[in-house]
Structures are given as C-alpha cells and as structure tokens.
Design goal:
Blueprint (H helix, E strand, L loop, with lengths): L1 H17 L31 E3 L2 E2 L2 E2 L3 E3 L7 H11 L3 E3 L4 E3 L46 H20 L5 E3 L2 E4 L6 E8 L6 H11 L4 E4 L1 H5 L1 H12 L3 E4 L20 H17 L9 E2 L8 H9 L3 E2 L24 H15 L4 E5 L15 H10 L3 E3 L6
Parallel strand pairs: 9-10, 9-14, 9-15, 10-11, 12-13
Antiparallel strand pairs: 1-4, 2-3, 5-6, 7-8
Length: about 400
Amino acid sequence: MKNLFFLLMAFFLILAISCNNKKDEWIRINQLGPFATCYRLPFTKYVKPGTYMIAAGRAISPDFRIGDNVCDKTADFLLNYMRQQRCGFNPYLKDSCHMADGYEIYGKNDDSAHIDVYADVQPEIANYHDDITDYTSNECTIDGTACLVYYLSALQNRSKNIFSNPNITMLKGAIVRMDSTAKDIYLCFTAHEFTDGFDFIIKTLNDHKIKASFFFTGDFCRTAVNRKIIERLKNDGHYIGAHSDKHLLYCSWEKRDSLLVSKNEFMSDIENNYKELNKLGIPKYKALIYLPPYEWYNDSIASWTGKEGLKLVNNSEGTITNQDWTFPDKGKPYFSSDSLMKNFLAYEKTRGMNGYIMLIHPGTDPRRTDKFYLHLDSVLNYLESKSYRFHSFSEIN
C-alpha cells in the first residue's frame, strides 16, 4: 500500500509543479507534459488515515485518501471503465460510437477505404475500442481496454487453475490438499487463546527462510500482546487469515451434516473476525483464505463461505500433527510429540506429501508440557532434505 501512496503522491506533485504558473484550476490529464524536470519525493511516512491534498503555488490537487481501504472499490471502478468503453450502442451511456468509421489498411481496397473488414468475425453482443470499426483494429495496438481485459482474463485463468485443477483435492467444498503432482508444502498455524510457541516458531521459520500461513480468531486479535505477534508476522511476510471470531463449533462431531449455528450467526461471526483483522491492517481482500475453527465444517459452511467471497481450506488428511493440542486427561485421546513425529515420518515415506496442507498449533493448553512445535526445526529439516518447497496461501488469495 505504501508503494501505491508513493506513486499517487508523486503523480499529484508533478501535476502541481506543472501548473505552478498557470491559472488556479486543475488541468486535464491530456494537457500534461512534456516535463523538463521530474521529482520523486518519499511519502511513505504519511500513514495516518485521512483525506489530503497537495498544493504547489496556486495549484491544488484533487482530494485523495490514505487508509487501508482506499482500494476497496477498485474492481467497480475498472468495470465501470469497461462499460464506458463499449462500442456500438452503449447501454451504460445510452449512446453510440464507432458505428461506421473503420478504415482498411493494406487490404484489397485502396488504403483508407471506409470499410470494416473484420465486422463479420467480431462478436455482436459487446465490442470494445480497438475491437470494432476502429482504425486501430487493423493494427497490433494494445490500449488500456485491451490491457485490462488481459489482466482480468489472467485472474480468471488463475482462479480456474486452483479450483478446476484435477490434482487439487476438495472435500465438502474445501481445499484439503493442493497440487498433488508438485513437491509443495503449505505450512499453517491456527491460534485462538494460547501463544506459548510463537517466539520459537517465528525464529525457526526465519532461520529456514520459509513463509507460512497463520489463521487467527477475532478474540486472539483483541489481545494487546497478540497484536504485537501479528505485527511481527506481517513484517516477516507471512500470510494472515481468519479463523472465526469466537472459535465456534459449526457442526456436530457425531453427525457432520447437523449444523450447530445458523447462517446469520455464521455470517455475523465471520464479519466480526474480519473487523478485528482490519483494525490490525489486514483488510478482508488480503485475507480471503479461510480456515474453519476446530478444522471442522460441512457443505453448508463451505457454501456460506463461498458466498462471502472466501476460499475455504483445511488441513490435509494423513498425518495427525493437528492433534498436537491434546493433553493427558483420563478417558480422552492424547498424542505425544513422539507419536506425532513417528506418524508424520511414516506417512511421508509411504505416501509422500505433495501439495500437503500441514497444520501445527503455535500454542497449547498448559496441561500439555510436551510441545510438538519444538520439533518444527526437525520437521522442516526433514522435508527440505526431501526437496519439498514451502508456500503460503498468499499465492492463491
């Protein structure tokens, strides 16, 4: 975001300098340049949210904002641009353009013949500049519209690669394993109330130069000490996502299809989670990967998550490292760190871990004194010796 502010500030400054000796009104962009001098000034220290302007001489820039949500409506802005650029009859502007003004160049007719030789092969529903009866249709020209179409198509293709990739494993609407043909590991950590392992984990990840994904509840984010942890993770470049607000159990352990929350309760809980993340400089659009509390969900939860524009992920089946939260308690299952390590090694040797989403808890109940996260260095050393690569979910956000 700082880079965006820097460029925005520099652009307005150039405009202001160019207008220094002109009348007070702001000039149109197509009146700019060429410039005899260009300056770049650092504005990265200006991080206080608010509305600003730049003044140079008698020239005053339009108002602009600094804040975490300045790009929230960028998609709408770009789509409105696309609607305005539509040729023929434009229902957005309720007007028409480029109906019969194309010229043929290097064709069978004389140069500049008033004819559109591509009309028969172009779509009739929606055409855009550089696409229909436009002089540049006959040239290898790419304008802003074409660039935008290319960019949006690339994003769509990227999304298709994720969800239609036959090598990605889906379970009840969630991604539970990434590409099984790639030697990639997606290391994840979830936290709600315990924090005892963060210092060790952050140091270990830095030592290995690995970026991981961390998922936090709203309650975790509300604690002052935890906010400092999140700031460290942000500064180190790790991915930070949501994990519900109150760590709700969405559905029955015994009967998975039986919901324990209503849709309104679910939506309200997620909204509150993202409000807390946003307070810490993590807007929703940067945290679209959602890992459910208790790593437990069903088809309804997956559907509601998708309607919120989120991508639901969960840990892969096979290893049981996610059971590192258990503690000795009569009549309840308990998995020691030694048993978790043996299970992990046996699974990798026999099945492999391509595309594996591996979950470890960065803090556990004090009643568990045998902390599995203290084995993180050994886990990473082993996987690196097997030539696995590590990824965070920022790549598919």
